[in-house]
Amino acid sequence: MDVIVKQGNVTDEVTDALVVSLFEGTTSPGGGTGAVDRALDGMVSQLIANGDIRGKLKEVTVLYPAGKIPAQRVLVVGLGKQETFGYEQVRQAAAAAAQRARDLGATLLTSIAHGAGTGGLDPAMAAQATVEGTVLGTYQLKNFKSNSSNGAGRMLQSLTILEASAEKMASVANGTEAGQIIAQATCLARDLGNTPGNIATPTYLARVAQDIAAETGMRIEILEQEDTRKLGMGAFVGVSLGSEEPAKFIVMEHNAGKADLPTIVLIGKGITFDSGGISIKPSEKMEEMKYDMCGGGAVLGAMQAVGRLGLPLHVVGIVPASENLPSSTAMKPGDILTAMNGKTIEIISTDAEGRLVLADSLCYAARYQPAAVVDLATLTGAITVALGNQCAGMFGSGEELKQHLSAAAQVSGDRVWELPLYPEYADQIKSEWADMKNSGGRLAGSITAAAFLANFAEGYPWVHLDIAGVAWTTTERGYNVKGATGFGVRLLVEMLRTWHK
User: Is 269 one of the annotated active-site residues of the chain?
Assistant: First the structure.
């Protein structure tokens, strides 16, 4: 979708569909909606008076101007209650309007930046959220059907963000550009998650990373399995032993070599298919385990956005990419692996493999002497029991970093919720045969997984995000359409964009 910003009046714009907005409880519309109302001889006010337009969040009413303004259709979208209004409501409203416009056959969409006027939001952030909601809400689920349209159906071709005020134009333009970059990065993560494991192999992820690096001028290194073996990454190597697909340890650097910049390391679990290994999963819904690389996809998407935005930070993206399959060469329950920092791990379940690839990644991150490390992983089913599909679980050792991520979550819409890491939880992963075991049993499964990771996140502030409940969705949820959600891209980018604050 092409995205542009333009100064002009809503009543003059030639477009297939013009989107304006309204708060719940409004009796007399103002701003762009008021201008449309006047041009249409009070049609919006009459519908409000009749109760046909209520302004409830995501409520969309379609008006036909009959030549009174150049737009073929006007879509009035509800923003909900003004006292609870924020950037997430902008995304939800923009997505609802864009989805309705697309379903009506519109290809050219024009919208105001919702909330930049009477809503009191920062104009740049309002424009960014409007673009994000529109692009993400109309994302087409990638498929591999043989028909000529590839199942794409109707699609919007362009979005124009219209701003009447000359004083706000620079801010709205900046926000529109950022929104497009961040939304495209989120869609990249969605595409990677939705691509099946026979295509999106570790080698495939490495090629995507190389493409991003070539476009943005990043430094990139792809460590092969023998390289990781020489580095002592026994945990990472152990996971890939059952597969013929070569594992790839992907390392990307934005602003490499700039010692005067803070270093932040992002780590994303990249298990491109997870059968559970010898501890094989039940067959029901095992096809969803193509999504087990969504943490890695989020890091690749975030790195693309970081490069395109040119952020003044040294950002390192690490994606440990591997398959987890059973075979005669696969690791077995009872095996003992040695991680990069020399700590030994007794394998209780080969299906607890994500924490193994993260363990060596966290050790590797220490070489950068980072100001912060954040890892994302579809790590445990237990997190969905605790938090459902509304937010990610957050754990970690850096209090300031956790506060920063929580603030970024509020703005980005990628929500997080902190769970405890009391020392007593580490008792569940004690082993008689090794320094620790890789599974602490059913109780507090997400917490004991984080307690395991804490053994390898040493010497720097660290946060672990368990995204298993939010990485994909089987139902339509606002701007999160079916399939991979791209969760984490917007969160990480917001954290990095506000780092110096």
Answer: no
Residue 182 in any domain: the answer is no
Confidence of residue 501 (pLDDT cuts 50, 70, 90): confident
Cα 371-375-380 angle, rounded to 5 deg = 150
The whole domain housing 227 covers 189-497
> Does 251 lie in the same domain as 393?
yes
* Catalytic entry in 102, 168, 290, 355: 355
Residues 151 and 198 in one domain: no
201/346 same-domain check: yes
Q: Annotated catalytic, 437?
A: no
Query: What digits encode the pLDDT tens for the residues 432-460?
Result: 999 999 999 999 999 999 999 999 999 99
Helix (H, G, I), strand (E, B) or coil at 393: strand
Distance between CA atoms of 46 and 66, rounded to whole angstroms? 17
Taking only the tens place, the pLDDT of each residue in 149-208 is 544 567 899 999 999 999 999 999 999 999 999 999 999 999 999 999 999 999 999 999
193 and 72 within one domain: no
Q: With contact defined as beta carbons under 8 Å apart, do 359 and 385 qualify?
A: no
Q: Who's near 498: CB < 8 A, 6+ residues apart?
A: 404, 407, 408
> Whole-angstrom Cα distance, residue 236 to residue 322?
8
The answer to the question of residue 174 being in a domain is no
Q: Is residue 172 part of a domain?
A: no
- Domain limit, last residue, from 144, 162, 180: 162
Q: What DSSP letter does each residue of 234-299 carry, written as one string?
A: HHHHHHHTT-SSPPEEEEEEETTT-TTS-EEEEEE-EEEEE--TTSPPPSTTGGGGGGGGHHHHHH
Q: What pTM does this model have?
A: 0.97
Catalytic choice (56, 68, 154, 281): 281
